[in-house]
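User: My advisor asked me to double-check a structure prediction for Metallo-dependent phosphatase before group meeting. I don't want to rely on an old file, so could you generate it fresh from this sequence?
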Amino acid sequence: MTSEYFNTPQMRKTRVVCISDTHNQTPKLPKGDVLVHAGDLSNQGSYTELKKTVDWLEKANFEAKIVIAGNHDITLDTDFYKQHGSSWRWPKPQDPEQCQKLFLESPSITYLQNEAVSIYLSSPTGPQTCFKVFGSPCTPKLWNWAFQYDATEASQLWNAIPLDTDIVVTHTPPKNHCDVSGRKEMSGCEVLRKALYRVRPMLSIFGHIHEARGVERVRWNMNSPGDGCLEDSVEVWKDPGVGNNKQSLVDLTAKGGRPLDNSSALTRHNKSFSLVSPSPMRDSGGEFTNLWPDGFNSTSRPEGSPAFDNEARGKAMLGGTIEDRQAPSMSDIGLVSKSDVEVDGRRRGQLETCMINAAFMAGSWGGGHKRFNKPIVVDVDLPVWNELAA
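Assistant: Sure, here is a fresh prediction for Metallo-dependent phosphatase from the sequence you gave:
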């Protein structure tokens, strides 16, 4: 049976739980559909540290778990570890390949390293929505840490974010957005900020700067950004979970009264899928003031899951997720060199992006007494990919 999306597929609330910079902590997580961890899983990336974190992630009850590394996860950056690993004290010699296998061979973790993947939530008890996510562990060069880039490499790195990305997960913040460090310096990446303006995803999730944890709702300047004013307005979130037992909730849904003004997911998911068989159907938020892997083999496909042109791309994950990894689209990357008018034509409905610094560690790393933030829970409307579940 073949089913095609209408131009405006049904939208359904999807709960995304965001966390970053856990540094070996394994906190209890709020319930949700998707978990995003934006890096610094450990203090320095030993196998013991990473195994503890992977065990915690795999036990977490989410359909999809999107994970990137951070600058502290040293063994996950093979080249860096080979050159500089001896600068750290280790309980015993480390094997980067074995450390990386913890994530790459996990049956429930989608581990991203400068790459994009489309996620289809296929559990009959879940929202059965879909989105495209890009993830990168990289941060601007500062001292001697893993996954760093210098100024000459930034454009090539961030221009590789596909234009049809719904969620961008990076360890570094973009400049000027939830990036003020304890030294009162804006520590984010300006080139990433410009890339987010180009792509205009629904969500930008990051960490790295612990003291800057928070959320901003950014409305983009649709006029020519020649004067450098990429943002038309920025609203700062008031956390409803401060000093109480409430969740740190951000409600971007239509039901919440003020949906995110971004149609990114709508335009991208106007495509056809073959369905094996039909699948059964199944709070108020806070206020606002190029490493491309080979395809993954899938030995079976759950009922009601999408059939891809290249079946080797589809990977069934534990928890009810179908993961579709694709080679980079040269047309996507090439669009950055086309005229602003042509690019704006594809982004006309993408007016807002929610920026989320989800740092769990509240103070600077190594700064003495440990203080922690709550994970940030984001409710957002995403398209239902399975028409039979709509």
